[in-house]
Structures are given as C-alpha cells and as structure tokens.
Design goal:
Keywords: Plasmid. This protein is an alpha+beta fold. It has helices spanning 2-18, 49-60, 117-131, and strands spanning 30-37, 44-46, 63-66, 76-82, 86-92, 100-104, 110-114. It has a 7-stranded antiparallel sheet with strand order 2-1-4-5-6-7-3, with helices on one face. The protein is globular and about 65 Å long.
C-alpha cells in the first residue's frame, strides 16, 4: 500500500512540475520601453507611446516555460522603464522562426515565447537599422 501511495505522489509531483508555467507581470506605471541592438548598442528604438500598451501585452501574454535556454548570445535587450526602476529583458529573434524568445535579467530559469506582431515589428525595424 505504501508503494502505491509513493508512486501516486511522485506521479502527481512530476505532472505538476511539468505543467508549471509562469507569466510576466509588467507594472502599470511603465513610462518608456527601449529596445537595443546588442551587436551595435547605438541602434536603439524607443517604443512609441501608442505602442507601449501593445508591447506590454506581448510580454504579459508570452508563453512561459521553466528551463534554461542553451542558446547563443541575445540579439536585443528591452528596457522597461518605470518611474522608480527599470526591468531588463534579453530578446532573441531568430531569422528562421516567427517567435521571439524572452528572458528576464536575473531570472534565467524561465523563458518566454511571443509571436505578437507589434513586438516583431520593432525588432524588424532594428534589423533594418543594422543593414543601413
């Protein structure tokens, strides 16, 4: 009987751990978002006021995964500037996929995937800056 209980308990723990997902929570007092090309930090795009809400939504609706990415250095970083602080996120936008990968600085055990069109539009603008 004890073996069955232990097996059931371990199965439950495993299922809960595998199904665990996180989400990003962005504060409402966000004043500015800057996206910076890490290859050339002079290439910076400030998100227009009318797009801040959409970029915030892109991060908050990104699908979260527990695990560490084994991937090259990030392409971009996003700075979410609040009245009293700043949050920094590392961004990967591979050319062979339509998904942006997001990792919050200091929390590398979680990563997020987003295919939000507004976020991709800003990253495409940075790619174009790189070409010119």
């Amino acid at each position: 009987m004890k073996k069955i209980n232990i097996i059931i308990f371990l199965t439950f723990v495993l299922l809960v751990a595998c199904g665990y997902e996180e989400s990003l929570s962005i504060s409402n007092n966000l004043t500015e978002i800057r996206i910076i090309d890490l290859e050339n930090e002079e290439n910076v795009v400030s998100v227009k006021d009318e797009d801040i809400k959409a970029i915030k939504e892109a991060f908050e609706t990104a699908e979260g995964h527990v695990g560490t990415l084994d991937i090259r250095e990030p392409d971009y970083k996003a700075e979410f500037i609040y009245k009293e602080s700043t949050d920094v996120f590392q961004l990967w936008f591979p050319t062979d996929t339509n998904t942006v990968l997001i990792v919050e600085d200091g929390n590398e055990e979680l990563y997020f995937e987003s295919n939000h069109e507004t976020l991709k539009r800003y990253l495409e603008a940075l790619r174009e800056l790189k070409k010119s």
